[in-house]
Fold STAS domain-containing protein.
Amino acid sequence: MDPINNGEEETSKKEISRCSIDVHKVAPPPQRSSFEKLKSRLKETFFPDDPLRQFKGQPSKRKWILAAQYAFPILQWGPNYSLSHFKSDVVSGLTIASLAIPQGISYAKLANLPPIVGLYSSFVPPLVYAVLGSSRDVAVGPVSIASLILGSMLSQQVSPAKDPLLFLQLGFSSTFFAGLTQASLGFLRLGFIIDYLSEATLVGFMAGAAIIVSLQQLKSLLGITHFTKQMGILPVLSSVFHRTTESMKRPKLFWVSAGMPLASVILSTIIVFALKAQNHGIDVVRILYIGKLEEGLNPPSWNMLHFRGEYLGLVIKTGLVTGIISLTEGIAVGRTFAALKSYRVDGNKEMMAIGIMNIIGSSTSCYVTTGSFSRSAVNHNAGAKTAVSNVVMSVTVMVTLLLLMPLFRFTPNVVLGAIIVTAVLGLIDLPAARRIWRIDKFDFLVMLASFFGVIFVSVQLGLAIAVGMSIFRMLLQMTRPTTMVLGNIPGTNLYTNLHHYKDAVSVPGFLILSIQAPINFANANYLKERIMRWMADYEADHITHHHQLQGIKQHSTTSLHYVILDMSCVSALDTTGVTLFKDLKKALECKGVELVLVNPIGEVIEKLERAESEAAGSIILRADLVYLTTAEAVAQLSSAINLKMMM
Amino acid sequence: MDPINNGEEETSKKEISRCSIDVHKVAPPPQRSSFEKLKSRLKETFFPDDPLRQFKGQPSKRKWILAAQYAFPILQWGPNYSLSHFKSDVVSGLTIASLAIPQGISYAKLANLPPIVGLYSSFVPPLVYAVLGSSRDVAVGPVSIASLILGSMLSQQVSPAKDPLLFLQLGFSSTFFAGLTQASLGFLRLGFIIDYLSEATLVGFMAGAAIIVSLQQLKSLLGITHFTKQMGILPVLSSVFHRTTESMKRPKLFWVSAGMPLASVILSTIIVFALKAQNHGIDVVRILYIGKLEEGLNPPSWNMLHFRGEYLGLVIKTGLVTGIISLTEGIAVGRTFAALKSYRVDGNKEMMAIGIMNIIGSSTSCYVTTGSFSRSAVNHNAGAKTAVSNVVMSVTVMVTLLLLMPLFRFTPNVVLGAIIVTAVLGLIDLPAARRIWRIDKFDFLVMLASFFGVIFVSVQLGLAIAVGMSIFRMLLQMTRPTTMVLGNIPGTNLYTNLHHYKDAVSVPGFLILSIQAPINFANANYLKERIMRWMADYEADHITHHHQLQGIKQHSTTSLHYVILDMSCVSALDTTGVTLFKDLKKALECKGVELVLVNPIGEVIEKLERAESEAAGSIILRADLVYLTTAEAVAQLSSAINLKMMM
């Protein structure tokens, strides 16, 4: 394909292109074997961040060091860890500990697990993460969402009140499978799966979950006895939303939000202790010592994991959902603060870290943990430098476990309930909702879907619906791709969207379309229909136009001679797509119109060539019907039209 | 946003752009309300072919006529129907009748229905289609695929041998629901759903179905008694595939393929009749007169339809699958010949026609019918001009029903079996398979999936798997969109794919990327990773380059100053996509690199503006960081770089 370069004709095209045009060849695509293509495709799919880049061209000894550092990020920052670092890490560590202890107890209650498990879970996992995790700001521990999901999903089949030991075992087992899910997602480089939980989905989901939790807690707070979601929801919602607005601001002055919970716990505990209130009907925490749970540090729990039996399905399902949701939170937190301090967090590696953390946790009496939004923010604001702040926190929790446990006997439940509610209400992100509404209406719909899905249907289904909607929209975009009509900006070589740029004018004799998506089975038929319609529009316009001009222009020049398809954006083509071009070619020939391609990418050229070598038909890739730019195509072809007219 | 237009500086950019550049504004998008957007979006989704175009600006009387013609295409060609038309329609009508009669009987057997139902189904539906259908070449009647699916799906729950009457009723009921499905798909303008059965899927599916049918028939042909698919399949496949190649050629000399079946039926019937062979153990057709089926024309059957009871689910499922598959064949046939003779077929209207045809059919003792590939081809080649050829065929069948039925008592089954096998083997399209393999390897996989799915799993699941794979691939394309690095072709304003065009060179100080897909939740994270990686590559290249040149270039000019994103192909943006730009902006600022956008479409501009009006952050749409073309951006900004360097 080598367009004839004909200089004379172009000089007459001044009105179309101001500066003279010489035609450039559309180069044949570089030769690559199917295997090479497959390889690069797989690389893009699974290693978009090219994690092994740093190893390239390094001496083998260095490679080993890098590998070790890659596996254990602690080796990266460990060596040059300074005293000043340590100081700020201690401060932030103690700060998040003061949050982690009350929240740990509360979230464990939320998951219908013995409160002490919440403390266990704030002791071991942080240590593991400090060694494996690559984020410097994430504060690890139990989180409200995961606790809620775990509790509610398991409660569907087992009553935590009737059979607490079994429930505890299932909790640990689910944690194991959650960890397994997370680790394998990371190991298989399938991290992108969590991207399908879009921002809209999560905003709606969190809010919905928050509502449910607060209602459950308000039940105990307000001491309501018979209280079903449906009946309670409408009256309570308003008040809830009212109180949200304050709790949105609070995170700003984080010292308060950091101090408050512990303060209230201590205060209330002292009061109860002093007044012996627990004997006067104030409901206080019972640190249940079920099974092997005793005072002191985490007892082993691997012998409590269920790998068979009737509940295997339940724990696997629970583990899957909890794992993915908590993973989403953890990764999001990591990415957020990494962006803030501009260091990189390898998503897939982070998933492995969190996964291993939970697998180990499940055999040391911990339930699902991940990076917590709220505590990480506090951690960051308190000036955390490295994962050492997690270690400090975990040590503080250890001390609590060893010495202070007995005191918690006097902590009133109502305080914990309050802590949970204030914590989860922070999950209702109204500004985000407003932003989503303003930017993208459909995303807002998705958000509502997951919000109401979670509240009125179920955690899993709510998410499923929202994700399904998002995917459906993508498919629709693919099925109905944009086709732009391009027009020339007089006195230039520019061709821009005719319906967006007022000063762009359509070139008589040409219909110039830009197709904005890969062409495949889902949209080939549509594109044919649509192009035909654009042609009909063109005819209509120019016939009326013709009438207006009282036949000053002769119809032959204004009538359609060429349909130019700007293929720059057609990033892929499948067999059905190839067929489209054949059909289109045929359909146009019947109308005496030529099909012209502009700037097709390598893959497209290749596939069209193959198709032609197959079937002897009208050739699409004819040299004089393929150009690199629209300007060149128009320049060349309009001179061709003029020649036709002269004859 | 109004880039400063500075003429002097550009004159120094000769090496980058030969003909002088003046900068054009990126126009703000035309104001459109959300409602207008929704409206046009819906129009594109459901009325891409703009069926009401012809009504525009017509006098109301004319509108009524057009409406009538739209509803009943017969009114379009009826008035100017000539004798010459009639002649050729009679010829072609008789030709397809000679195919329809034996095939009708055979396919009815294939569907485990009484053979006479096959003749009924070649009588009423063609008449209905002649009135409603808009294709001039389609020959309507029972088809092998639909018959196979109907038979096999119903047989899963009801034995045609044990309870033939019930089976017949279920057959009619399924036909009703098939018709309902088809009509409503058309009425709701959801025709595009059948596009999701891609060419690859269908080629594989047809071939698989053909194999199953032939095996079933060979069973009776070869008189094998105990014969399961799995055991028989491998030995038989080869011979089957061998015989295909001939049966591929046959359609060419269509008179043979048209005459053969009837000839063989008549001949064999006469022989059997003469030799009284039926008394000597030759198995002959039994026209079962179950229920109301008697000699003569179609008896009513609406009283046989099941709208409740235990089998409702079965018939609905069967109707859905059969309906969609037969619809696919019918529409494909219509489109093919419409393209050949260059007249339009309105897909959705055609669906309504086929749907109504089947609904009426279901209450006149007909089972699922549609436009048949093979017979339509014969019809076309025999010179059919209008749907009258269908009428002629139907009349011929009527005569047969009234007079010739008794003779069929002597037609040997083996002949019908042979007819079926030869017919269905024509469905194995090896050249298509080869073409798919050459053009697109993944499509070939899809084809294999549906082929083996149908053979070894089930009709529904085989299809489901294939469609699932095709959709998964689209999602993957969306999740991992192409990002091209653009380079300048020296002495021009052209910027083309650096890795495709050898003569393109990268512009020092700039990284120019073209993003080839809508940006949304599924790919935002990937794009960030990928862009960061391109930047790392740039740095790497230019540092080595720098060393090679022994520091002749000073590093400051070669180091990265601007990342230019060519947004021409970003046809949509969601909230997550907006966030990407914020993050990217931030990430680049840390490296002292500016983010430049080129030619963003209206929607993108709009959403970014909204996002900025929301959050006070670093502005993305800064006047001097948005350009209409890459050339202009480079020209302006490289002068900016030079200025920086001088200071």
Q: What stands out?
A: Confidence is low (pLDDT under 50) at residues 1-20, 224-252, 550-555 of chain A. Chain A touches chain B through 97 residues (CB under 8 Å). The radius of gyration of chain A is 33 Å.
